[in-house]
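Contributing new records

If you add data, match the layout below exactly. Sequence lines come first and carry their own label; structure lines follow with theirs. Keep one chain per record. Anything else will be rejected by the validation script.
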Amino acid sequence: MKQLFSYLSLAICCLTLTAQPGGGQSLHDRQARQSPDWFRRGLTYQVMPRSMSEAGTLKGAEAHLERLRDLGVTTLYLMPVNVADTDMDQAHWSPRQIRSGYNDPRNPYRAADYFHVDPEYGTDQDLKDYIDHAHELGMKVLLDLVFFHCGPGAQVLRQHPEYFEHEEDGSVRYGRWRFPVFDFSRQDTRAYFKTVMKYYIADFNADGFRLDVADRIPLDFWEEARAQLDAFRPGIVLAAEGTKAENTLYAFDANYGWPVCRSAMSNLLKKSLTDMEGCDASTIRKAHEEYTGQRPIGTLSWNFTENHDISTDCFPYRHEQTRGYARVTLSKAFTFAIDGVPFLVNGEEICYDKTISMFGNKNAWIQWEAYSKLPKAVERTRNIREWMQMRRQYSSLTNGQTQWLDNDRPKEIVSFLRHDGVSEDVIFVGNFSDKKLTVNLSNGIKYELEPWGYIFRPVAR
């Protein structure tokens, strides 16, 4: 914990820096904060160390770095690797952790010590080595930090119970997921977590953070932290597991893309159109227009169809298994084409359809060698590389606007252009149905699309 106490002093003494109100402007009339090019123009890959290798360690995950660089990954989002709570009292385990059946107390999202790597994953030096190696290969690393709650045996709870919310009888309050909840009305609680962030930047050279359940923590804390981090080391990325419209004004570089890429897309990827419960392809456009219309100009979202909360042994696993290759490929292409930053979870690039878990790795690590040779895995990997090549080549995909194109099959077809006036436009047309269709677009172009087929390519201006 080199320099830890100096960081804590700086955090406590530092003046609170917050952005000024927007003078009555609506959010949509204001500009989102400008994110670094490496994040905005890149591809994020979520790493679950427990599933990356049989050992489930940082060294096991590090062995994949060159392969991920070659895939087109630019940003690695590493799930929590700090020391997890070993308390065996299941009264303070989350329901999902219990249902997983591993009987392992080490939930990555139930911290015991924020300042060290859990021995399950390796050592503090192993984390430094992982980040250094990623940097040598031209990739950035975001660490996952959990500030809303911790484990009941956490060091900070023993040393500073005053940092937590309390019940009327004086006991520490246990909130959602049955974990102790921090009190962000206290300046010393806030100072503690700003210290944690600065520690990982200074001592581990982290490039930023994914912040767990960010919307349950006061936004003014994140704005204070952003101002201090910008002064400490400019260019740090903060990504919110949240959707608050105000997040991207000052604090965060991106929100989670729940409304468009998860909620609307998930409904459309059910087994058949008759299963859609009144949902059709037009709901994607509607969700996107509502989302962007309520947020600052240029707001980034992390675009995904899976993440660790979706793709675990607690739910029907991988869309590959439940929805099929063609539908999943269509959804993946959409996340690369729509405005925002595409986001993959480990294993998606090889169409992995078996169980993985964030609650243990016994018999739940990805069988890389066997799956990567399958024809659909080879094709998926090739697709991702091609999509990333387009993002590098056409700035319309990373800096441009989304221009929706009307079509004569709006219940089945999603169609839009990406345009920035600099590079060529890129068109996306997706058939969210199980029927072969001919579609006429409002720009005069006609396409024939196979069931769950798509067009994703540049078009002449």
